[in-house]
């Protein structure tokens, strides 16, 4: 009968419903703290417990405090917030929800925290619960709009908003938001009579179509904040009070050791009127690598995999990061105690040991030889140099070679090339010989190993006729205030500040004020039409929206104390500056190792932490201590076992990308490739012979009275080492170079250089003119030798090693069978040039 | 009693217990609302997760990327849609990452499929929203907890009472005292436009629920009842107006559509979808020949009122170069009451006055484009002097009234184009206004719910009250 059937259906549904509710609680307890879970502790009890905060004062109806409970187990700190049981002595005054205490009624009550066999007492004082506690637009609603993702740059925080609704990016301008949410759009977005019916509730809840998707759930803290804000009248008061800082507990770094992989954060905001507020529930949390470490909307961090990541905490315009290291025991791992050549190895090994990676072994002489030549001079070793090194029996031959190479002319020029890339040295912008002049000065600076602080200061304070005073061209290459700000920040401070031209930096504490304050440093530096770089007596930078006159960065007093650039240079180069030394040692490290300790090298920010903080700090300190001696740091790194390690990974380090447990396979740069092909095929003379040729030509030129214009031009080309791509002052435009990623020198970004292999490059090598023509030239050179000799010579020049017997035999067979010997040699040369071994450092 | 008797009584009782035969589930009335509220957010026309759309019946029945049949007529358990709404496995349950449908809703869907998954409307491709028909609106709360913004107001003929758009209602207030005298309820959630017929017996209202529903309706002013819903739109109706002869009605919506209806037969005469953003104002020319619509897309479009064909587009609020350069949304347009002249205002610094015929002539061709762009043309400009956007515009007799987000109302003379006076007192954005030339009263309404009445001969403020039933005499707070 129908009654029974309905009854059965109802029963079935009831069973479904009850079984569903008996299922484990939803782990996505977004916004509300986890319900108390009494997980059994390990059998080890903590030596001591730390409860934060030690006392609580709740001064409004909705106030709460997030607790963080730490246990110390033989010195190791572990988060016990989840296991701790909080109890309020008086539920009419204060109540407990998970690991938070909430205000209920005025009075004093004790809160007990029991965990690990101990009991800690926290006095709680509650006041003002009778008074109204309306949601504050500036400090709560705006925070939620960021937290739920509404005000991000790809959504309504984009310059033109989305779907006709525009918010300021991460709430940087509350005035814009106060209008968008209320009066703009004919009052479309709010319903003060029935808050749940407001468009800004229905859309993110996906009750009506929303291109942005589901951004709000009824369980989110933000749901209650938005709803209550609207219910209370959607007031958009903007008091003068601002948030001055946020304090994160337990601090800026944390180590999570499996199986204790959770960490609760507490975030407290301090305001300019002296008040504080717990904002743990409404702050925005983000992980720099969600595969390694994730973070919940209520501030609970969970380590997922071995590694390091930064958890960023954002509240209004404040941004802080917590550096999280996740250690998980790797079965079968035991430290191999490899030799440590110097402090670099000690610090690299400490991190590897902590995260349980084993370093690879040391590379062969042949691999080392090619690597060190290419890294320090840009050029591969000649066959003679290879023979000599491989035969050398001295135990310190590698250290000797490093010292020798650091003192070569090629080293100076190759270093200058790197800086010239960033400083936009190009005849396009630096006309009438200025590019050559500036480049020569750069080479000279590296040749005599000018202390880097002096280098920076000379550039930043340069003035004069740019056709005479080489460093003045720093400013000629970057004529506008914006370019100077961005170049200086990127080059010397390793920071990309372009974003802050228009609004506060989305991922750092840089603000618009900072940008224009740096700009103000260069406000009085002008370049006349004739190329004269001089200081004007007046000139200021105004903040584009507030129109305040900006105080130049680094100036202790006001605007008028002499050359403000000098003040800036003082600030920059003073030992202890958080940027200068760190950025430069990181660049040097990246050049040698293929990846910076901070990666990318010009993206220093707290949300992009260094892979090895002690390593970077120590190198930076050493750099400062040595008087900013670049060669000292390069020598230190090159002599380390870390630099000299093999590219072959082992079982315990094959997943490591960032910690330098093994060397990286790196493609030669465009310039290196061009020169390596030239030297291998003898199209290009090795430097020693080249210098001799230059000397001969000079003598001839002088002997003929110094009148020949062609000889003069040729001499100038030779002096500038124009024939070498790795040695010349500015790039020669060529398809080959562009294909292989040579930068155009249009920005200060190292990202201009394309380092990853591309299909175009492969085609260029296989079919392109350069490789083929060079191979033919090489063939003519090799044809004068016997088969055996030329095969050996080819392998030594190209790959810095002797051919194996098998390789010798294969090549020999090929040459013997060939109809046309020279063609066959061309083919052989071309083949070697196309091997991975030639194209990559390995 | 014998067992037989007992059994007979039981039989009788069980017969009485048999529930009467129920009508089949109606797709358009019972299923469509569920789909709209719980499904089309992710499975709409634009956003279609899993390649599955459910915004109309045709799409609903078509498989998405999975290839599984969403609905198999007569077989709920074979229908992927039903399986997914009733499963207990949260990872695959629909609506995704959200509360499940209620048991009653799930049962409705099951029943509808079991009964053959029938479609009870004409057009299988009609959007679900159109199936729902006009909404029945709830009663308004007796006392308003908060003041709602005044987006529309209109004098009742006679000038003694003013109708103000409220929350699901139109409230009527005595102009002399500010007392609440009538409440015409069960109207759209928001009223954005109001106009009385000349005989005062019918009130035309435009409004709706933002983002979902727009309505153009007629209210009988004697009974206060909504008598006719002329049309529904996909988004709120922002503007509505009668033609001067009262024979036609025009309405514009945030869904960018402009529609015209016959005022007596209530038939829709034409629709124009030529704007690319909200339609903010509509106005018929004095002779009923043209209709103009202003829009947030920075243009005013002029149509032949009879056919609806586009006559010309006025781009004066979107000028690239020249003295009157600027790019601003247009919030209001008014044709002059006695000649072919249009007034438009919005963002920017001017009220612009132009003749559509001359605008069309000046549109020219590409050949004289630069020259044309540089010239102001025949348009006249009144620099209004507001510090923020202008929202309200009214042209009556030889007076122009304009309101602004800066709280001011300004009055200009149509002949001299100069300012007559400024009315200051509002502390919030002023959106709504009406003017009664006979009693020389101007009434304005603002975002904070405040209504102010002014004497236009002296400029003196006469009355100010909060259009908030239950709180009329409270001072309006500035938000």
Structural description of this entry:
The complex is a heterodimer of chains A (842) and B (479). With 842 residues, chain A is of the alpha+beta class. Chain A is globular and about 100 Å long. Chain A contains 30 helices and 25 strands. Chain B is an alpha+beta fold and 479 residues long. Chain B has 2 domains: 25-132, no CATH class; 153-477, Methylamine Dehydrogenase, Chain H, CATH 2.130.10.10. Chain B has 8 helices and 30 strands. Chain B has helices at 3-17, 27-38, 57-60, 80-86, 103-114, 128-131, 356-363, 369-374; strands at residues 153-155, 161-165, 170-174, 180-184, 190-196, 202-209, 213-220, 225-233, 237-242, 248-253, 258-262, 268-272, 279-284, 290-295, 300-304, 310-314, 318-319, 326-327, 330-335, 342-346, 350-354, 380-383, 390-396, 399-404, 409-413, 419-423, 430-436, 441-446, 450-455, 461-466. The termini of chain B are far apart. Chain A binds chain B through residues 1-3, 9, 13, 16-17, 19-20, 164, 182-183, 185-189, 191-193, 197, 199, 202-203, 206-211, 213-214, 217-218, 233-236, and chain B through 14, 17-19, 37, 40-42, 44, 46-47, 88, 95, 97-99, 103, 107, 141, 144-149, 151, 167, 189-190, 192, 209-212, 236, 238, 254, 277-278, 280, 296, 405, 428-429, 431, 447, 477, 479.
What is the gist of this entry?
The complex is a heterodimer of chains A (842) and B (479). Chain A is α+β, with helices and mostly antiparallel strands and 842 residues long.
Structure characteristics:
heterodimer, A: 842 residues, alpha+beta, four-stranded mixed β-sheet, 14% strand, globular, B: 479 residues, Methylamine Dehydrogenase, Chain H, 2 domains, four-stranded antiparallel β-sheet, 8 helices
Helix and strand arrangement:
The complex is a heterodimer of chains A (842) and B (479).
Chain A: H1 2-22, E1 48-52, E2 56-58, E3 64-66, E4 68-73, E5 76-79, E6 85-88, E7 94-97, E8 100-103, E9 107-115, E10 118-126, H2 137-147, H3 174-180, H4 184-187, H5 199-202, H6 221-231, E11 243-249, E12 253-257, E13 262-264, E14 266-271, E15 276-278, E16 284-287, E17 293-295, E18 300-303, E19 307-315, E20 318-327, H7 343-355, H8 365-377, H9 383-391, H10 397-406, H11 409-422, H12 434-447, H13 452-460, E21 464-465, H14 473-477, H15 481-493, H16 512-521, E22 525-527, E23 532-535, H17 564-573, H18 580-593, H19 613-625, H20 630-638, E24 666-667, H21 670-680, H22 687-703, H23 709-719, H24 735-739, H25 759-767, H26 769-782, H27 787-799, H28 805-817, H29 821-833, H30 836-839, E25 840-841
Parallel strand pairs in A: 2-10, 12-20
Antiparallel strand pairs in A: 1-4, 3-8, 4-5, 6-9, 7-8, 9-10, 11-14, 13-18, 14-15, 16-19, 17-18, 19-20, 21-23, 22-23, 24-25
Helix pairs in contact in A: 2-6, 8-10, 9-27, 10-20, 11-12, 13-17, 15-16, 18-19, 18-20, 22-23, 25-26, 26-29, 27-28, 28-29
Chain B: H1 3-17, H2 27-38, H3 57-60, H4 80-86, H5 103-114, H6 128-131, E1 153-155, E2 161-165, E3 170-174, E4 180-184, E5 190-196, E6 202-209, E7 213-220, E8 225-233, E9 237-242, E10 248-253, E11 258-262, E12 268-272, E13 279-284, E14 290-295, E15 300-304, E16 310-314, E17 318-319, E18 326-327, E19 330-335, E20 342-346, E21 350-354, H7 356-363, H8 369-374, E22 380-383, E23 390-396, E24 399-404, E25 409-413, E26 419-423, E27 430-436, E28 441-446, E29 450-455, E30 461-466
Antiparallel strand pairs in B: 1-2, 2-3, 3-4, 5-6, 6-7, 7-8, 9-10, 10-11, 11-12, 13-14, 14-15, 15-16, 17-18, 19-20, 20-21, 21-22, 23-24, 24-25, 25-26, 27-28, 28-29, 29-30
Helix pairs in contact in B: 2-5
């Amino acid at each position: 009968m129908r009654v029974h059937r309905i009854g059965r259906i109802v029963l079935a549904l009831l069973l479904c419903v009850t079984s569903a509710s008996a299922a484990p609680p939803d782990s996505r307890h977004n916004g509300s703290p986890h319900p108390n879970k009494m997980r059994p502790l390990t059998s080890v009890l903590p030596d001591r417990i730390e409860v934060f905060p030690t006392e609580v004062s709740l001064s409004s109806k909705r106030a709460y405090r997030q607790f963080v409970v730490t246990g110390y187990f033989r010195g190791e700190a572990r988060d016990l917030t989840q296991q701790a049981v909080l109890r309020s002595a008086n539920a009419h005054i204060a109540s407990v929800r998970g690991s938070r205490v909430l205000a209920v009624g005025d009075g004093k009550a004790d809160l007990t925290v029991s965990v690990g066999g101990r009991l800690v007492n926290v006095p709680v004082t509650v006041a003002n619960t009778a008074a109204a506690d309306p949601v504050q637009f500036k400090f709560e609603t705006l925070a939620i709009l960021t937290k739920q993702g509404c005000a991000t740059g790809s959504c309504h925080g984009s310059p033109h908003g989305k779907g006709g609704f525009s918010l300021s990016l991460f709430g940087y301008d509350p005035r814009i938001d106060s209008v968008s949410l209320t009066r703009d759009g004919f009052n479309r977005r709010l319903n003060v009579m029935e808050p749940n019916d407001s468009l800004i509730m229905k859309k993110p809840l996906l009750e009506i179509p929303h291109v942005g998707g589901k951004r709000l759930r009824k369980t989110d803290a933000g749901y209650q904040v938005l709803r209550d804000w609207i219910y209370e009248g959607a007031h958009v008061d903007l008091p003068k009070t601002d948030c001055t800082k946020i304090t994160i507990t337990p601090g800026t770094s944390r180590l999570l050791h499996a199986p204790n992989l959770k960490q609760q954060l507490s975030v407290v905001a301090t305001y300019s009127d002296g008040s504080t507020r717990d904002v743990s529930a409404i702050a925005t949390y983000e992980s720099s690598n969600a595969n390694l470490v994730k973070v919940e909307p209520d501030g609970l961090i969970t380590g997922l995999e071995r590694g390091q990541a930064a958890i960023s905490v954002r509240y209004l315009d404040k941004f802080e990061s917590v550096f999280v290291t996740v250690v998980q025991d790797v079965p079968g791992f035991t430290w191999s105690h490899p030799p440590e050549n110097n402090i670099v190895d000690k610090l690299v090994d400490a991190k590897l040991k902590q995260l349980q990676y084993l370093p690879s072994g040391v590379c062969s002489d042949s691999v080392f030889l090619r690597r060190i030549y290419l890294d320090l001079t840009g050029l591969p070793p000649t066959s003679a140099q290879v023979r000599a090194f491989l035969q050398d029996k001295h135990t310190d031959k590698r250290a000797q070679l490093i010292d020798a190479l650091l003192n070569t002319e090629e080293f100076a020029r190759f270093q200058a090339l790197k800086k010239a890339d960033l400083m936009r040295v190009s005849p396009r912008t630096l006309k009438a010989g200025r590019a050559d002049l500036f480049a020569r000065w750069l080479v000279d600076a590296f040749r005599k190993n000018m202390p880097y602080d002096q280098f920076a200061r000379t550039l930043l304070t340069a003035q004069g006729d740019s056709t005479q005073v080489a460093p003045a061209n720093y400013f000629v290459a970057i004529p506008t205030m914006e370019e100077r700000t961005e170049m200086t920040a990127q080059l010397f401070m390793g920071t990309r500040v372009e974003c802050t031209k228009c609004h506060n930096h989305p991922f750092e504490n840089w603000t618009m004020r900072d940008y224009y304050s740096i700009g103000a440093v260069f406000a009085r530096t002008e370049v006349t039409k004739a190329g004269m770089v001089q200081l004007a007596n007046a000139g200021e930078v105004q903040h584009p929206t507030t129109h305040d006159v900006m105080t130049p960065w680094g100036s202790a007093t006001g605007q008028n104390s002499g050359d403000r650039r000098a003040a800036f240079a003082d600030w920059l180069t003073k030992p202890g500056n958080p940027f200068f030394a760190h950025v430069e040692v990181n660049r040097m490290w990246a050049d040698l190792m293929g990846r910076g300790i901070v990666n990318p090298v010009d993206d220093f920010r707290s949300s992009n932490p260094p892979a090895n903080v002690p390593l970077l700090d120590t190198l930076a300190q050493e750099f400062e201590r040595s008087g900013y001696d670049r060669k000292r740091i390069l020598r230190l790194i090159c002599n380390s076992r870390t630099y000299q390690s093999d590219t072959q990974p082992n079982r315990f380090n094959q997943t490591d990308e960032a910690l330098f447990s093994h060397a990286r396979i790196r493609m030669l740069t465009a310039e290196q490739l061009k020169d390596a092909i030239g030297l291998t095929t003898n199209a290009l003379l090795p430097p020693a012979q080249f210098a001799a040729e230059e000397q001969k030509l000079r003598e001839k030129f002088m002997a003929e009275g110094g009148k020949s214009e062609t000889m003069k031009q040729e001499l100038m080309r030779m002096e500038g080492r124009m024939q070498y791509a790795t040695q010349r002052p500015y790039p020669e435009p060529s398809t080959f170079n562009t294909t292989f990623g040579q930068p155009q020198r249009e920005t200060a970004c190292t990202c201009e250089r394309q380092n990853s292999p591309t299909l175009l490059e492969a085609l260029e090598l296989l079919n392109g003119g350069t490789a083929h023509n060079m191979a033919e030239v090489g063939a003519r050179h090799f044809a004068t030798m016997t088969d055996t000799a030329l095969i050996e010579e080819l392998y030594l020049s190209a790959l810095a090693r002797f051919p194996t017997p098998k390789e010798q035999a294969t090549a020999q067979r090929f040459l013997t069978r060939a109809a046309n010997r020279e063609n066959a040699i061309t083919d052989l040369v071309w083949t070697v040039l196309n091997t991975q071994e030639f194209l990559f450092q390995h | 009693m014998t067992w037989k008797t007992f059994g007979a009584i039981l039989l009788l009782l069980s017969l009485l217990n048999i529930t009467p035969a129920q009508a089949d589930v109606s797709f358009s009335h019972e299923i469509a609302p569920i789909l709209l509220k719980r499904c089309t957010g992710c499975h709409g026309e634009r956003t279609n997760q899993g390649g599955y759309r459910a915004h109309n019946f045709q799409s609903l029945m078509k498989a998405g990327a999975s290839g599984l049949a969403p609905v198999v007529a007569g077989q709920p358990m074979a229908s992927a849609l039903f399986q997914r709404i009733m499963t207990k496995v949260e990872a695959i349950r629909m609506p995704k990452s959200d509360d499940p449908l209620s048991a009653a809703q799930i049962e409705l869907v099951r029943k509808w499929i079991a009964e053959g998954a029938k479609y009870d409307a004409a057009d299988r491709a009609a959007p679900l929203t159109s199936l729902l028909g006009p909404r029945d609106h709830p009663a308004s709360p007796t006392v308003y907890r908060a003041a709602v913004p005044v987006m529309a107001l209109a004098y009742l003929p006679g000038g003694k009472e003013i109708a103000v758009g409220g929350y699901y209602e139109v409230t009527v207030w005595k102009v002399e005292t500010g007392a609440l005298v009538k409440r015409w309820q069960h109207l759209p959630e928001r009223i954005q436009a109001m106009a009385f017929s000349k005989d005062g017996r019918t009130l035309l209202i435009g409004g709706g629920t933002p983002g979902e529903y727009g309505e153009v309706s007629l209210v009988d002013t004697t009974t206060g009842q909504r008598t006719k819903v002329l049309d529904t739109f996909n988004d709120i109706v922002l503007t509505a107006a009668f033609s001067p002869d009262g024979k036609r009605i025009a309405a514009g919506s945030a869904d960018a559509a402009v529609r015209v209806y016959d005022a007596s037969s209530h038939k829709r005469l034409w629709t124009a979808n030529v704007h690319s953003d909200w339609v903010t104002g509509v106005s018929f020319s004095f002779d009923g020949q043209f209709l103009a619509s202003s829009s947030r897309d920075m243009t005013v479009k002029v149509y032949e009122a009879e056919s609806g064909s586009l006559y010309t587009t006025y781009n004066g609020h979107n000028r690239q170069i020249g003295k009157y350069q600027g790019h601003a949304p247009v919030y209001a347009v008014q044709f002059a009451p006695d000649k072919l002249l249009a007034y438009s205002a919005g963002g920017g610094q001017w009220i612009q006055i132009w003749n559509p015929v001359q605008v069309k002539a000046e549109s020219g061709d590409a050949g004289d484009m630069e020259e044309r762009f540089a010239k102001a043309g025949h348009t006249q400009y009144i620099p209004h002097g507001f510090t923020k956007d202008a929202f309200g515009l009214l042209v009556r007799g030889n007076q122009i009234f304009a309101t602004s987000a800066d709280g001011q109302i300004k009055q200009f003379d149509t002949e001299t184009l100069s300012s007559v006076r400024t009315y200051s007192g509002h502390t919030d954005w002023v959106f709504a206004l009406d003017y009664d030339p006979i009693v020389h009263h101007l009434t304005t309404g603002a975002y904070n719910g405040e209504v102010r009445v002014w004497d236009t001969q002296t400029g003196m403020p006469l009355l100010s009250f909060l259009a908030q039933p239950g709180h009329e005499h409270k001072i309006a707070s500035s938000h």
